[in-house]
Description:
InterPro entries: ThsB__TIR-like_domain, ThsB_TIR-like_sf. The chain has 162 residues and is an alpha/beta fold.
Amino acid sequence: MADSHNVFISHKGGDDKQVQNLKARLKAQGYDVRNFSVDSTNHKDGRRPSDAVIARLLRMRVSWSSTFICLIGPDTHTSKYVNDEIKYAHDLGKKIVGMYTYGSANDVELPEAFKKYGGTPLGWNSVDKLGDAIEGKNMPAENADGSTRGPIYNVTRVKCQK
């Protein structure tokens, strides 16, 4: 765990406190992560940059990260930027990991781009699994409560005609 890892934590602006909590929890578990996401702690003098500047910063910072984490809260799916960030991370071939904010695993809507490009989101208490994903280890699928999810066997095969 001594290696430093560059991550981008995508989130809705109102979840800045949850981002800080996640970074602290990862650090407490011994993970050395550098967060390249844009949150209110990055704004000098409390001034918010223009939308064009934020979009440019987001593209640069997603490209610098090795792991893209989507912090999923009650309003994440309504974010002006989250879907674009996820799509851009996918286009760059980044590892996309979802994590529910504290207390929201059972009652939130996933961002559309995460439904398309992400995997199964982790529960808030799965920091060890998130750390494994950051380090490039295989991550088992899990249910919203954090328990390991079994395989899905309801596959339908359709024969196409020429």
